[in-house]
Amino acid sequence: MIPCPICQRANPVIESLNKQINQARGPKEKAPFAKQLLTKVEDVLAEHGPTGDPAAKACLSVLGLRKTTVELILKAQKLAD
Ligand SMILES: [Zn+2]
User: Fold this and answer.
1) Ligand 1 center to residue 79 CA distance, Å?
2) Looking at residue 51, what is its pLDDT?
3) pLDDT tens for residues 5-43?
């Protein structure tokens, strides 16, 4: 699947934050990157706008999954406090 231009532009940043999250040890180290990623994903979601465009549907579901994952990481961090 070829990502739309918005996602194509955002993906390097998202991937690099994902990498930093994966390399971080423990929830406390992951949290700052997770917060950045959450902000980024929300920005990218907003950029897609309130659209019924079928092409954007795939984007929104991928971004939704990323958001859920990040929220789980942040939740784990709160529990570890
Ligand atoms: Zn997209």
Assistant:
1) 32
2) 65
3) 999 999 999 999 999 999 999 888 999 999 999 999 999
Q: Distance, CA 30 to ligand 1 centroid (Å)?
A: 25
What total of structural domains would you count in the chain?
A: 1
**What pLDDT sits at residue 1?**
57
Provide φ and ψ at 6, rounded to 5°.
Answer: -65, -50
CA of 9 to the centre of ligand 1 (A): 9
pTM of the model: 0.86
Query: How many angstroms does the Cα of residue 25 sit away from the middle of ligand 1?
Result: 30
Ligand 1 centre distance from Cα of residue 54 (Å):
11
Locate 38 and state its tokens: 């959450």
Supply the range of the domain harboring residue 14.
Answer: 5-80
- pLDDT, residue 53, reads 74
